[in-house]
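Sorry, explain these tokens?

***
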Amino acid sequence: MALMKERGVTAELLRPEAAQEQFPGMVFTGPVMFHPDAGHLDADRTVRAGVDVAVSLGATVVEGKPVTRVEQTAYGVLVQTDDRSFSARCAVVAAGPWLPELLPSIGGSPRMPRSWVTQQQVFHFRHRDPQAAWPTMVYKEGIQLFGLPSGADGGPVPAMKVAQHDGGTPTTASTRDGRINPTSRDIVTSWVSHRLPGLDPEPAAEGSCLYTMTADEDFVIDRLGSVVVASPCSGHGAKFAPLVGALVADLVQGGTAHPRFAFRD
């Protein structure tokens, strides 16, 4: 709260009774920080809008071509896919959970902060009252969970997507199995049953996603020779996409990495 006020962000601390009155589909046992200007974006539409803007500015988009190697050369960078290669003076590698597998070819492994990949489970729950208003929410008390309105992956609307932020299963991008961890399902459905009585506690849909985690849950955005590595890690990078884009663009043009996100020697 203090930091948000210092930065001029509107927020207030609600007593449980006031929060209950505002969000009757939820149960509160302690004070709640409420940020009235918070919201959410449709991830699929947001990514597509970004790609469309890039194309309108002259970018060539190649989809469905996994990158197998990113090699620095005397002239810049050579990017290899399964059937062709691309050369450039500078490349931005924003490979998410595939980054650890590409790092050896870039030559940056010794300088990268330690990171690992986990598979997380997400669940979608139907509204008991289709007209009820639901906030984007974060819960951190023993376990860490988050919730927001479901997108296309939640099936027919309205539904809420609820997932555990911690407790992921270690894996790699290439070896993930996509199987839902029953322990995570039990944790999330039990929490929904007790804390979100406005939702049907039986998941209407479920799926998995990947996190690239760092020890401090911070980002890694720095330049190594002709390669800019952009890894907005730990499950929250998408929220900072405009800022990350600006930092990456600055590095491409010869700028210096922000000390908070720089490689470690």
User: Anything to note?
Assistant: The helical segments are 2-6, 16-22, 43-56, 99-106, 182-195, 241-252. DSSP finds six helices and 14 strands in the chain.
